[in-house]
Every structure is written in C-alpha cells, then in structure tokens.
Write a structure and sequence with these properties.
The structure holds two protein chains of two kinds.
Chain A (H helix, E strand, L loop, with lengths): L9 H6 L4 H16 L1 H4 L3 E4 L6 H5 L3 E3 L1 H10 L3 H10 L8 H12 L12 E5 L5 H13 L3 E4 L10 H22 L5 H23 L10 H7 L1 H5 L4 H20 L9 E6 L7 H10 L2 E6 L17 H10 L7 H15 L4 E6 L3 H4 L2 H12 L3 E6 L9 H16 L1
Parallel strand pairs in A: 1-2, 1-3, 3-4, 5-6, 5-7, 7-8
Chain B lengths: L1 E7 L3 E8 L2 E9 L4 H15 L9 E5 L11 E2 L2 H12 L5 E5 L4 E6 L5 E6 L8 H11 L6 H5 L13 H13 L4 H22 L6 E4 L6 H11 L3 E3 L6 H11 L1
Parallel strand pairs in B: 1-4, 4-5, 6-9, 9-10
Antiparallel strand pairs in B: 1-2, 2-3, 6-7, 7-8
The chains are: A alpha/beta, B alpha/beta.
The site of iron/sulfur cluster has 12 residues of chain A, from α8 and α17.
Amino acid sequence: MSNQDKPIDFEKERRKIKSVKKMKDIMTHYYIDAKTAGETGKKVAWITSGGPVEPLIAMDVIPVYPENHGAMIGASKMGVDLCEKAEGMGYSGDLCTYALADIACSPVDGGPIGGLPKPDMLVCCNNICGTVLKWYEVQARYYDVPLFILDTPFCHTEFSAEAQQYVRRQLDEYLVFLETACGRTCDRDRLQEVGRLSMAGQRLWQAVLDTTVNKPAPMSAFDAFFHLALIVTLRGTQTVIDYYTELLAEMQTRVAEGISAVPDEQHRLLWDNLPIWYRTKWLSEKFASHKACLVADTYTSAWCGSLQYMNEDDFLGSMAEGYSRIYLNIGTDQMAAMVLGMIDKYAAEGLVMHSNRSCKPYSLGQYDIARIVQEQRGLPTLIIEANMTDARSFSESQVETRIDAFMEMLKA
Amino acid sequence: MLTVGIDIGSISAKAAVIQDGQLVGSKVMLTGYNAKTAGEKVFADLLAELDLARDAPDRIVATGYGRNSVAFAHKAVTEITCHARGAHFQDPAIRSIIDIGGQDSKAITLNEAGGVRDFAMNDKCAAGTGRFLEVMARALEVDLDGFGALSLKAQNPAAISSLCTVFAESEVISLIAKGARRADIIAGIHESVAARVAAMANRVRVQAPVMMTGGVAHNIGVVKALEAKLGYPVQVSAYAQVNGAIGAACLAAA
Ligand code: SF4
C-alpha cells in the first residue's frame, strides 16, 4: 500500500501541533543564514547552551550551538557513528557525547546538515558543566579562533556579593572581547533592548510550558523538547516572541477544545534530564500506550528557570546572577526543591529520570532527588539508564520492562 | 478456576498452574533461540504432565522478557509485578524480594497486598547476574552447581574488585596464576555479586523478611554473602525459579 492510499487518521491529525511546520521553517532559515554568513559578511560565534547570548545578538553576530547540533545528530541517529569516530581520534567514550559528536564532525563536515558553519569566535560558559571548557579549547585550537570563557561559580545555596562582582567583571570583559573580535563598539541601548526581548521570550516560553497544568495537557515534554530549540538559539530576537505567541495561542485553543497530547490522559509524570534524542518517538508512544503524559520536565524549563533573578531595567547587571543560578549550577537540595515545585504545579504523580551517561552534572544527585521526592511527596521514581546521543547505551527491552513495571505499579 | 503463568526469561522458560488457590504444578526448560516456541512448549509439556487439556486453563498471563511473544496469553505483565505477587503467594509476610536471574538482577519491595512499592534493576551489565557466575565457572573449570558448596570451604576470600564481567574474568585468571585456592576465588566472586546486589537493594530500602528468587537463589554461597552484606537472613524461595510464573498465574486468577 503506498502512502497515498493510507486512510487519514483524523484523530491523529487533530492531535498534531500545527505550529511545528513554522518552527521547522524558522530553524531552516536560521541555519541557512548561519551557513552563508561568510557571504553576507556576518560573523558566527559558537556558544554553549547556557551561555549569555544576548550580547552576540546585540552585536549582530550569529550564535551557533554545538549542543543543538548534538541534539540534531542524536535525533537523526548519527550519534553512534560520530562517537566512534571521536573515540578513534583518541577521545574517551566516557566523555559527553555532544562534545564527542561535535569534535568528530569538524574535520569531516559530518552530521545531518553537513557540519556547522565555521566559527569566527567561541564563547564558553561553564554554568552547565566543566566538559565545555576542554571541548571549546579543543575547538579553538582546531579552528584557530579566539575563545572567551565565562566562569560562573557554583551556587550551592546562594549567590554571594563576591560572586556577583566576579561574574559582572567578566561580563564587561566579554563585551570587550566581542568589540575586539567584531571591530566595533557594542551599543548598550541595543543590548538593553535585546535583554528585554530575551526576557519577554523566556516569559512566553514559560507560559507555553505552563499550559500543561491543564488536564488533559495540550502538549507533553516530548513536544517541549522540539519547540525548545528557539528559546535556546534565538533568545533575544523578535522571532522567538512571535513564534511563542503563536504557539501559546495554539495551546490555549487546544485546552479550550480539549485536545490532549496523549489520548485519554490518565497519568501525569515529570521528566528529568536531557531527552534520549534517538528514542523520543518510541518513548512518547510507550508512555502514551499507558495513557501517561510527561507533562513537564526539568530540562526545557531550564531556559526560563532563572527569570526571577533577571532585571529588565538593568539587564547587563542582572545577567551575572541570572546566568549563574541555572538548574545545573545549583546544589542538589535546590534542584530537589525545584522538582518538588514542579510536581505540585503540574500535579505529577511520578518522576521519570533519565540517568544520562553523557551528562554527569545532570545525573549526579538524581538518586538523592528521587529519595527526597519519595520522602516529601510519597511519589515513586523510574530511572532509565541511557545516553542522550549514543544509542549504544540504550537497551530497549530493559527500558520497556522498567516502564511497564512502573506503570503497573502506578495503576495498581 | 484454573490459571497458568508463563515466564519467558532470557535463559529459561517457566510455567506454573494454579487451581483454586493451590499450586498444582510447574516446569522449567531452556528458552533457546525462539522465545515463541519456548512458551508454547513449556505450556504444552506442563499441561500434558498434569493430564490437562489445552483448553483447560481459564486464563493465562505471560511475563518475562519474552512476555509479548506468548500469543495465546490473555495478558502480559512484567516480571516485577509477577515476582511480587508470587512471593506474596508463597509467604504473605514477605516485604522484599531479591531476584537474580540469568541476565539481570532486581530488588523489589512489597506492600501488604503483594503489590509493588518500589523496584530497582541492574544496569545493562552482566555483573551481579547468573551470567557473571557462568563466565566465572568456565574460567575456573568448575561446574556451576558445585559453586555454592565449594565457596563455603573458603578460608580467605579473594578480593575481586572489578565491576565488569570481562575485567573480573581476567582478575580471576590472574588469581589462578598466582596460585590462589579455588574456594577462595569463588567466595570472592560471590562477595562481589552480593556487594553489587546489596547496593541496589539498599537503594530501594529493602526490609526483612526478604525472599530470594531466580536461579542464583540455589547458590548457597551467594545467599550467605548477601546475608552478610544486608545484615539479616534471606529466605530462599522453595520455588525460586518459577516464582515469576506462579505470580503470573495468581494475577491471571485475579
Ligand atoms: S556534559 Fe551535560 S551540560 Fe555539559 S555539554 Fe554535555 S550534555 Fe551539556
């Protein structure tokens, strides 16, 4: 039977999120712009996912995210091949597979889009992990371009005045670095405006995520994993605001019309850690077969989680705290408090944790968080062992048994 | 009411028949290459042994890794839920189960009704499973059945520090080369399995009374090592290998 002969599943069509197409178009244009930057005279900076992107936008530099690229590599199931290549180059298989895939892509222009556009500079912020330091050093040597490192102290409990001053000074140095690399000065008013747009975008993203407080939820974490790309890559632009405004409206319509992400939603769960990119479809169908919706997650909410520390009227000044107090840069107790807050807000009845071989800072402390959730809310946790990009660490039958058993337990 | 539970594990296929709350028979055979035919065969053979017609069972529940390949079952339930139910059937006082099978190990805590409270399974690794012991038995040229008794003769258990089956095997080979006693090496192997499983069990906070199930429960050396690590006695199920199938048969009746 050819595709055209297939009967249309109207129910499935109704459930599809219509904004997806627009999002794909935006991302395609973004990558075309970045890849043709050489011809248009624009500069390209590679930046870590938690890095301060607003100054780049203000300076008209195109930000490119190797981690977003890593996610695309994972989703297109090219991770194993690239990780093996990196291992062949001498890198340990225990490293973060985003780093491995990126390093392996560079010499061969590999991956789903034929490699990332060459960088003119690199911006690395260690608020997400320590891996990025060595990763960006490797790439700075490879491309022979300047590297700026923003060092954000770990915030076990609080953000001290010394830490504020320390990061604030580096932000000034960051602007000087960009001015030198671009050969022109940074317009502070423009930066303030970009900051305003960035915060507006983050608020909208939070509003989109919050539509899942509704029962049934109009979208799931699997949808959020997809729609996240904009707030990561184009934060600080009007494009993000326009798109999320539209997406929010679509979600509100779905809520009004009772269109749910999972047919006949019966169970609501919270996801922790990065997605398992090469298995999102399988996982989403697996949970849906149990009428379970992953209504929220700690990952996609990380790009609006520190809004409370940001100040629109003093964007540059508040960036220090906002960029330091992100989910991966705080103590386990604070992470647990955020997880508990999300459980309450989204009325989740269980936690699903991806224990991710790749991302140590995210996976460390998960057993403690699971224990705290058990003690304080009496809710169970399912642990899935995998790796976000490298399918060699995923065992379908083991994961399937765990999910099935967990759901049997919840239903009993 | 007559119900059947079929448990297709990675190494062995098991079946149990329960009639009006009584276990009337059970059977274990090798799964082999084809999980589907193994399920059919263990089912047919057991019914034949019990002189039951093929259509005698009212309901059938399949469990284990091959649970979805048993086409004639009415329902598939995971081995976690089935083990809990099986242990509860054998002894309602049981609050925790430690199951060490061919390819995985798990720790399950139970509520009063025999339902699952929490569970943990080993990661994708053979260490701490029956397969690990098989590999070691081969390296030591000892029959696996003699492993338990031999280890009790140990005077000075060897330290096996590696968590990886392949590395542990080379550790064992170098211990043999150094002239370590077999009994001591085997005791060391049991301790390393027990340490791994106990860590997992503590993660879900197992409570006494604990029942041990799975093929490895027949190995007295592992049981003793586990008791030492946990600090309380471990009850070995009389139906260690068929506990999952018994649980499945119980659930079929529910
Ligand atoms: S280790 Fe984790 S935080 Fe760091 S780059 Fe890899 S995935 Fe991102």
